[in-house]
Amino acid sequence: RDRSPSRGLGDVYKRQLLMSVNKKGRLIVWNINYDLKEKHIKQLFSKYGEVKEVAVPIKLENNLNKGFAFV
């Protein structure tokens, strides 16, 4: 059993995210600043190669990101 903290994500949801990331070859970047937008993350990772896609889930109640992103 995975003992790492899930930051509020359910275990099933977390496993589904990880399987999706493994299939698509994306990274999950945790603990990002809540004010960061997709363009900021893309700019940071572009230093290391082509970035095809960045997804930053947003909280609807405050329009801030959820503290993680997919790159």
Q: Which features does this protein show?
A:
2 helices; two-stranded antiparallel ribbon; flat; 8% strand; 31% helix; alpha+beta; 71 residues
Strand content: 5-15%
Strand order of the largest sheet: 1-2
The whole-angstrom Rg is 13 Å
Overall pLDDT level: 80
- The helix-strand sequence is HEHE
- Overall strand count: 2
- Gross morphology is flat
Q: For the terminal residues, how far apart are their CA atoms? A: 26 Å
Quaternary form: single chain
Secondary-structure class: alpha+beta
**Count of DSSP-assigned helices:** 2
Helix content: 25-40%
Main sheet, how many strands, which sense, barrel? 2 strands, antiparallel
Question: What can you tell me about this protein's structure?
Answer:
This protein is of the alpha+beta class and 71 residues long. It has two helices and two strands, in the order αβαβ. A two-stranded antiparallel ribbon has the order 1-2. The longest helix is centred in the first third of the chain and has 14 residues, at 11-24. The radius of gyration is 13 Å and the shape is flat.
List the helices and strands and how they pair.
Elements: H1 11-24, E1 28-30, H2 38-45, E2 68-70
How would you concisely characterize the structure shown here?
It is built from 2 helices and 2 strands.
